[in-house]
Design a protein that fits this description.
Layout: E1 4-6, E2 17-20, E3 24-27, E4 30-36, H1 39-51
């Protein structure tokens, strides 16, 4: 079972994106749907977000 984590900056209303290590990301409102990401894709996504 994957442990999903959300940012401490997320609102307490459950409107956030969660990250599952080695699995990908998902919307907390629709946890059954997830976007799978490899470690390389995750690194690239973080670089893109940080550079924006």
């Amino acid at each position: 079972m994957t442990r999903w984590r959300k940012s401490s900056y997320s609102a307490s209303d459950g409107n956030c994106v969660e990250v599952g290590r080695g699995v990908g990301v998902r919307d907390s409102k629709s946890p059954s749907v997830r976007l799978p990401l490899t470690a390389h894709q995750w690194t690239q996504l973080l670089r893109l977000v940080k550079s924006s």
